[in-house]
Amino acid sequence: MWLILSFSINHKIKKMQLSEIPVRGLGLFSDDNSHFWMDNLMNLLQRFPQLEYPHRQDFYMLLFIDDAEGEISIDNQKIRMDNAKVIVIKPRCISSIDINSKAKGKIICFTEDFFSLRYNNNILDQFSFLHDTSKVFIRLSEEEKNKWMYLLEIFFKEFRLHRRESVKVLRSYLNILLFDLECLYDPLGFVVNKSPKQQKIKEFEKLIEKDFKFKKMPAAYADLLNVTPNYLNKICKEVTNYTAGDLIRKRIVIEAQRLIHFTNYSINEIADQLGFENASYFVTFFKRQTNKTPEQFRRLSNQ
Prior knowledge:
The chain has helices spanning 2-15, 44-47, 113-119, 142-161, 166-185, 196-211, 218-224, 229-240, 244-262, 267-273, 279-290, 294-301; strands at residues 23-24, 36-40, 55-57, 60-67, 70-74, 77-80, 85-89, 94-99, 104-110, 137-139. It is α+β, with helices and mostly antiparallel strands.
């Protein structure tokens, strides 16, 4: 009876909604203001229990799963720990980790600045699996798993040495792993040099990320990008198959779903946080995009 009651209480705690979603930085793992950190997965939650509960993070996380049990939740998607895989948790997503204490594998965390401080730009843009709309895990064959285990051991040894020039070496190792993941994610490869239209879309997506709560019309972004609304819409269709308005609405819906599922904010409060004039307008918008009202989505996502 006690075991059943204990499981029920723990389950409710894990599903508990939050009034505020905490934001975690790399300071969770280290207090040396580093832009990079890695470790073994064993006893991860015993050392960092904050990861077990819903949170956002301002860094990228790669989880190399060799042998583990449990489940990782990223926004509304759940990934089982079964076969060898790499799980990618991107900044701004809401995630929680449930993993057994004897898990085998590695965790790698790094910020955008880990690269941009060296290359004066964000080279992470070239990796398609790091884009916001990409899938969150990549399965590894036995051959790929063995290769990753070998590379990660060398990588980890360098990290623990803390030599003066280690940052450059670590950046190189991480670059190798990211390129390998890109090949697995997109076997046809990718073009590093983006066309002017692709670069303009990337600028547009960054502006959406920054301003979607306040600017909901394409014309406002077109003005910031020094193009006409018609041209912005045209290149969006060419590059992404979505209109400029579609991209803005998709980002608003993602944030709305996160707030509905992971917080106990009222629908009025969520509408206000997302910059809607009133709750009825927000409800209409959300239902048009998802075919569900916010309350229906909350009820279904918490089942």
